[in-house]
Every structure is written in structure tokens, then in C-alpha cells.
Amino acid sequence: MAIEPVIFWVFSTILVLSAGAVVTVRNPVHAVIFLVLAFFTSAAIWILLEAEFLALALVLVYVGAVMVLFLFVVMMLDINVAPLREGFVRNLWVGIPVLAIVIYELWVVVGEKQFGLDKVAAPAGHAADYSNTKELGGILYTVYMYPFELAAVILLVAIVAAIALTLRRRPQTRYQDPAQQVLVKRGDRVRLVKMAAEKKQ
Amino acid sequence: MNFDIAEFMPALPEIFVLTMACIVLLVDVCLDQERRVITYVMTQATLVGAALLTVALHTGGRTVVFSGTFVSDPMGDVLKVFIYLVSAMALLYSRQYLIDRQLFKGEYFLLALFAVLGMMVLVSAHSLLTIYLGLELMSLSLYAMVAVDRDNEIATEAAMKYFVLGALASGMLLYGMSMIYGVTATLNLAEIAAYNADISGNEIVMVFGLAFVMVGLAFKLGAVPFHMWIPDVYHGAPTTVTLFIGTAPKIAAFAMLMRLLVEGLGGFYVQWHDMLVVLAVLSIVAGNVIAIAQTNIKRMLAYSTIAHVGFMLLGVLTGSEGGYAAAMFYIIVYALMAAGAFGMVVLLSRAGYEADRIEDFKGLNDRSPWYAFMMLILMLATAGVPPFLGFWAKLSVLQAVVEAGMLWLAVVAVLFSVVGAFYYLRIVKLMYFDKADDHTPITAGIDMRVTLSANGLAILGLGLFPGALMALCASALL
After folding, report:
1. Is residue A110 in a domain?
2. CB-closest option in A108, A114, A147 to B133
3. How far apart are CA B329 and CA B320, in angstroms?
4. Does A131 touch chain B (CB under 8 A)?
5. What is the ipTM of this complex?
6. Total domain count, chain A
7. Which residues in B lie closer than 8 A to residue A153 (C-beta atoms)?
8. B183 three-state secondary structure
């Protein structure tokens, strides 16, 4: 028996279970950790598809950077989950049929009938010297040059917007001005006062 | 792709706007608050330059460059020129308003420039990827513009709503796109159009993707039942930002509709036709009826926008060249009328006072007969009274609908336009037959007065001679 199906089923099971846990656990910090697990297992499935670069980027960027930031935010916000959970059981009666319909629809649309192996062939394997990173780099800066530049512009807008919305000079905030500090002369700080010597009484 | 100069030429307006935006960003950092006007002038100059470039590069032909991700065609060129025009007007109207509220900052103009760039990308998109990136570039800039007045709680709330719902809509759109990509294995719109779903039996997946794309599109256009964000955002945002959001992005959203549905998914006309019928009818009915109950003119104009979007969708759903041209004519006319109407709200506002209640228009004729006349033109045109421009827009859409044999749709549209005429005429009544509560003289810079008057007179003048603009739209789509 080949090892690939075993790997696939193991990681897929963990992925689905952890994705379910993200929305069902009570503690938001635990939810974030489950999301990390979901990302990590999907990265493993991508490696199985020979998309090594994307899998590593997912682990490094999402797990390593984005989710850690996310975790900080969730911890700092101190969300009170109790009000968010109100009416969970009451709305369950509506939620479950909707969920069932959505799952059925998804199964009809993206199920075996449309995307089975007879419809879409399994991707052919590559030789050992095949470099996924090189292939991506080859088209990213040529075929996808225009979208790549646009993505860069979007990041620039994000920087401008973030600075415009958060950098505010509040009049009451005290802050250091290095230029002023450097320009200070001795005379501004120290005052020499001549006093007559006092006598002991 | 080849990195030839010829490959870059069609995208020269985009490259120019991006370069200028970066230059404005660097120049603005070095400016004092007293010399901030330089940023403003450079922004306006960029829009003028981009318009000149677009006109100069207009060939009348269709060129696809950058490996099929960018298209330059007459429809794109015409829409882009109107986007520059309306954006320049929006910035011009906002100058004094921003100075009065200590919002005259470089970021405002910079974000506006990036939003214009996003609209240009969207108009010229020829791939699902560029459509999405253009949309995000435009939307991100607009979210930040709504929140630009940080101390205003309503504006911040509006920005949050806009951001969360906008992100949700983008997610829907992206999910639909991923379905289409999953079946066709291409992002290129021409290749998607060439894909024959009937043979491969993947039709159901394509329709599933189409439904999600439609939800995303309806969200961005603000068509009922995906319109909930429009009144709150229009009401909460600073009036000049509302003016900007309500005009140029609508033209870009029309382009997105044309690129996605007509160019990419034209083969699924039967399916999207039915979806558009539902969206259009609900928008026209809900927009016109709910607008009657509004006491805030920004909210009223928001519901009027929803009704107008429904009318524009009527033109698209006919699926004929004439219908597309009528819809294009309609959206351009709408953008010009909305710019004028919001411009009037900006004109009546002053430092520390927002003239955004309907009562603020009371007795405008006593305060300033000329502006009352301008508002009269704008309101009658928006209501669709002949001979103003809005009438021809409605007429051409209705003609296309009747020609397509959908008489009942035309009847519904006309009936609810008559209902809608009530709330436009109420403004006219307030201006001419009521006594003013507020006698503050209307002050505005010469630039604002001239442009607003030109805006109003253009609606009247183009209404008397609508042939040229209609012919322009018709020729752009051939």
C-alpha cells in the first residue's frame, strides 16, 4: 500500500477536526491555536501536492507571523465570550438545517461527480530535480508581473492608510523631540545663582 | 511576456497615476500645513495628465497586454475619462470643506489617487486576478477615506461597517472566482468565455461560481438585498467622501459588471439574466419606497443610488448591445448628477455645521436663487423629468428593455420612478415654497461656485442635446 493516501487521510482528518474546533471551542485563544493547527496540516497536504514553496510560505508567513500577531491581538482584546454565545442553542434549530443544505449543495457541486478522478486527472509527479520555487519565480515576475505590481501597490495603500488612521498628534500627549534635546544649551537648564554666604547662627 | 515598450504603452495612464501618487507621497511628507495646497494641485494635475494620456492613447481598437491580464478598449477609455472627471470634481468640491474641518491632509488626496488607480485597473481588467486586485485597491483606499475623520464616531462606525461588509463581499467574489477557475483552469476572461461548459458537463459548478460572483458584485454595487451598508456609509462618512464614493466607484463597478458577466461569463446569460431581474426589481422598488421616509438628505440620496443601480442593471440584463450602451450612459449620467447633488450638500455646509437634513434646503430660493435653480435642475434630472439629462438616461434604458420584450419590467420601473419623483420634488417644494430657518449667507470659493454651476448647467445642456454622449457610449461598446 502506498504511503501517500495514509498521509493524506491522517492530515485531512486533523485539518477538518481542527477547523471544526476553531468555531466550536469556547476560549478564543484556543480557537487561534486550532487555526494554527489547521494551517499547519493544510501545509502538509500541499507538500503532498509537490507545492513545497507555498507550503513553506504558509507555515512561515501564516503560522509564524500572521497567527502570532493574531494571538497577541486576541489576548490583548480580552473578549468576553459569554454574550457572543448567547442564543447558541436557540439558533441551533435554524442553523443545523441551513448547514445541512449548504453541505449537500457543496457535495453536489464540488463532489465526486464534478471533480472525481475521471473528470480531473491527478497531477503528474515531477522528477527529483524539479524546483517548485524556481517555477513560481519564473512566472511571478513575467506572466504575473502586472498583478504582482498591483499587490505591491495595495500594500503601499495599507501602509498609508494605517499611518493616516493611527498617527495622530494629540495635544495632551507628551513626547520627546530629539532636535530640541540636542539644541539645548547649558544656560537653558542650569542657572548659577550668586548668593551671599550664610553665617552660622 | 515580452518586455517591449509597446507592451507598456496601453497601460501608460496607470503607470503615470502610480508614479505621480508616489511623487505626491514623497512631496507631501516635506510640506508644512500652510503649503498643503501643493498636494491638492499635484493631485488634480495628475488626474488631468491621466485624462490627456488616455485620450492621446485612444486607438479605437482593442489591445490585450501583460499576458492577458490588461485590456485597453474604447469602453475602458471612455469610462476612465469620466472617472477622472468625476474624481477631479469630487476633490474640487472637498477642498474648502476639508480645510474647515482640519481634514485638509495629504493622505486624503493620496488615498483618492490610489482609489482612482484601483478603478482604472478594474476598468481595464482582463483576468479574474486583476479584477480582484483592482477592486481591493479601490475599496481599501475608500475604507480609509471614510475613517479619515478620526474624532467623528459616526464616521468611524461607518468605516467599520463598510470594511467588514466589504471584506465579506470580497470573500464571496473570490470564492465564486475560485469555482470558475477550478473548472476552466484559467483566469483569463477571454479563455473563460471560450470554455464550453456544456461539453464537459461542469455547468453546475460554473453556475455555482456565478452565483457567488453575483453576490459579490451586488454587494459592491449596492443592489437590494445586498444594500444594507449603503445608507449607513453614505450617512456616516464626511460629505465629501460620500460624494466621492457615490460617484466614480459606481462607474468602476459598472465596468466590473461588464467585464465579469458580459465578457467572461457571457455564455451563462440565461442564468445571470434571471439573477439580475431579481436584483433590479428589488432595488428599484426598495430604493424608491424607503427613500420617501428619510429625513437626512445623505440617506435619501443613498436610497436613490440604490434605485438608480437597479435601473442600470435593467440595461445590462437585456443582454443586447443597445442595452449595454444604455446602462453605460445611465451610470455616467448618474455619476454626474450625484456629484452635483452631493456638491450642493457640501456647499450649504460650513465649519461646524453639516447641512445634511432635508430641512436645511428650506427657503434656499430666498438665500440664493441661483443655487436653488441648480438644485432644481439636479433634482428634476435625478427624478427623470424631461428635458434634463436624467430623463434620456431612463428613456434609453427603458427602450432597450422594451425592445428585449420585457414589457412588465419597464412598467415596474416607470411606476416606481413616479413614486421616486415624490422625494425629489419635496426638495424642490422646500426650496421654493417654504421659509428659510437659517439665513447665513452661502460662501464658497470661486472654483467651487464655477464648477458647481457648470455641473448643473451641463445636466441641463446635455439634456437638451443628449445625442453626443449617447453616441459616445454606443460607439464605445462596438
Report:
1. no
2. A147
3. 14
4. no
5. 0.93
6. 1
7. 18, 114, 117, 137
8. helix
